[in-house]
């Protein structure tokens, strides 16, 4: 079934070209079913790229989904037009009286800062507190996952000696969970971060369950035992070329950076990388949306 989007959203045509089932809001209004309401808190700098990545995944499930985009009112993004934000994004005051079946909290390029020094951290704290009573389940990615672990479970991030960038092998620790239904015992996933979270701290927190980890990249998937929080420290949603784009951006800035691990064929940045994690990305998002959102959320929020 389709993902329901505003008719004018630019990324719709790209999604249709990829054979993603997209339904514009005019057509969706004629259907007499209860769609899921999903809030995407998009903190990434290139918002339209992240929209494309996430909507592709939500649109490949058998569930009709209404999407609302949220931005931080206290921060003005530099890589997206004001007209795009004004037309397609809400701020917290616009949605605080609504309820959502699911919420996605993206990564953000602020991970080397203490949480309290991030300009919009008070908004994140307010949002997470509000979500306790207004959202059935939240999927958090990279910095978003670290923010949830810190605010909700008291686990701080830790600096890495060098950036973790590349595609790494992961091992399932809890293959019985619905979140990873259909996963291989070992699978690949990309990471791009300067910080990590402690394996020992996750195991000591009784409210959390470790789902998957990597010998090289560390803790990857965690879920709260009440299923209200799913946290992914990497970026399964990334396109095949996203790590390449980040690497070339950093090189152009003159930053000291290593070639992403296990990513370019023959570790040669002149060669075109391939997406080796796509199938597990779709499984993660469809499992979350089905088992942790659709199967758990009330039909009538009132």
Automatic annotation (TrEMBL):
Residues noted as binding substrate in the record, renumbered to the chain: 163, 192, 249
Subcellular location: Cytoplasm
Pathway: Amino-acid biosynthesis; L-methionine biosynthesis via de novo pathway; O-acetyl-L-homoserine from L-homoserine: step 1/1
Cellular component, GO annotation: cytoplasm
Sites annotated Important for substrate specificity: 192
Site (Important for acyl-CoA specificity): 111
Active-site residues per Swiss-Prot or TrEMBL entry: 142 (acyl-thioester intermediate), 235 (proton acceptor), 237
GO molecular function: homoserine O-acetyltransferase activity; homoserine O-succinyltransferase activity
Protein name: Homoserine O-acetyltransferase
Species whose genome carries this gene: Tetzosporium hominis
